[in-house]
Amino acid sequence: MVAYEERKLWNEAIETLSRDEIRALQLEKLKKQVTYNYQNSPFYQKKFDQVGAKPQDIRSFEDFARIPLMTKDEHRGAQEESIERHGNPYELLACAPREKIVRINSTSGTTGVPTLYTLTQHDVDVVNEMHARKYWRAGIRPGDVMLQALSLSMFTGGLPLSQGIMHMGACVVPVGIAGGTKRVLDFVRLTSPAAIIATPSFGQYLIEKCPELTGKPACELGLRWFFCAGEPGGGNPAVRTVLAGGFGARVFDHTGGGHAFHGISCDEPPEQFSGMHFVSEDHCLLELVDPDTKAPIKLKDGAIGEMVFTFLDWEGGPFMRYALGDMLRIIAQPCSCGMPGIRFKIVGRADDMLIVKGVNVYPEAVKSAILSFFPHVTGLFRILLDAPGPVVKPPLKIRLEYAHGFAEKDLPGLEQKMMTYFRQEVRIAPEFEWVPAETIPREMKKTKFIEVQEQ
Ligand SMILES: [Zn+2]
Predict the structure, then answer these.
(1) Average pLDDT for the chain
(2) What is the pTM of this model?
């Protein structure tokens, strides 16, 4: 037996399975799951009926790809219909009897009606296991204190995350962010955390405010890990460098809350971002499809497509071929960190995609490119459109802020460097409109990247 401190993985038996072994395990679980979904949910039964299939017809991943996709609108529709007809939100979607359902989480739900995740104790255990796998890979061990500085409400990065940390034996301090920056820093002093979990933008803000509020720089807080969550900045090399330097900590990006899709990055090499390691493949079948035609895209190195996921070995609300609109890129090459499994990068949202001279442009990619010039820029920007997308008449107009203290006379030089970078990395030549820091409104919730201007 290897002492737990030296064990590199939480669940060695599963996490080191070969590609073929994991695919075989997925297929075996998939066959059981589709039968279960069909038998227990009118919503999923209808999906099979639409193509005249029965669960026993699903013998391969290709067979399964015939089942129609499930969309967020359908999810919301089924929730509403359930409430109307049965007086509860999960009657049509949940597959477990009501007395087995112990938790309901939701997406952040900043736009429209929140979509719900329904979990039994078994599902809660699966989510806990995934959190344990992620933090264990990053080097967290029992005895480490983790400060959870994220919104703690219904959001899946709230309670499910606290529970997952407890499950692996580490100590969570669910301080939240509702009490403000000072309170977070007070709890750093009071509880001596080794790690903090926060959005990258909150992390940058802490670095800025720390000397004023505590009398010392953030690198003296004693934090050894910074875990990015809730927004994509954790995948940006420039942001990672700022966080790593500012806190004197190792920086990890991770995703996954009250559901079955979980990943965590590694910090090798630290100045780069090589995607997140997909840690939950035994409970989540990932497929990629073309965002327009919805045709399947093979899951191989370099493939980009809209992610479609299916929960495996899941009881409560086992989503099946759910297309949430996130675009992923797959990295199947072995990682230099030595950790097993395939990796993915979240490219952006399919419905935010713009087309400029035939090039697909995601606002997330624009954000990432702009952030590469931090701290000369604040990172805040808006894409200005004359008419709704996705097709944009070139050039793409971007309004962006230069940072406090950046001399206006140096803007042409900066713009030239950015233009070169945009041509290479985003493959477009945008038109920049510079504004001083704090011109673009800051939004507490989901940031709006695109603004359609009235003519
Ligand atoms: Zn790695």
Answers:
(1) 90
(2) 0.86
